[in-house]
Amino acid sequence: MKHFIYADNAATTKLDKDAFNAMLPWLQEEYGNASQPYSFARKPKKALMEARTLIAECIGAQPDEIYFTSGCFLTPHLLAKAAGEPPILTGWRAVPDPRQPLGHPRSLGSPRM
């Protein structure tokens, strides 16, 4: 059997089975938005804080220094902001200020839509 190497992990990455199984309850049953004040969000918020604490302990950081992002859009901007730099250019648009509301991707000049 040939060994398959997937080289497009910038677009998607296969989940580790342990990570997938750990996430199942949060994807199927306890999927409330952890940043919201309603009761359905309490368990996800607690789990998110526990995950931050665990990761912080593993790398010698504080839990409030751990940010979870969806990936390539917000992460470079947060890093630039932490370094006191202006928004990062991605080659086709500047990553916007995360404190401002986003427009539809077409209005941001995305050629990919």
**Rough shape?**
extended
Catalogue the unreliable spans.
Answer: 104-113
> What's the number of helices?
3
Main sheet overview: none
Strand fraction: under 5%
Secondary structure tally: strands: 0
Whole-Å distance between the termini?
38 Å
Provide a descriptive summary of the structure in words.
- The chain is mostly helical and 113 residues long.
- Helices cover 34% and strands 0% of the residues.
- The radius of gyration is 18 Å and the shape is extended.
- Residues 104-113 have low confidence and may be disordered.
Summarize the structure.
The chain is built from three helices and no strands.
Write the layout of secondary structure elements.
Layout: H1 17-28, H2 42-59, H3 75-82
Key terms:
113 residues; mainly alpha; single chain; 3 helices
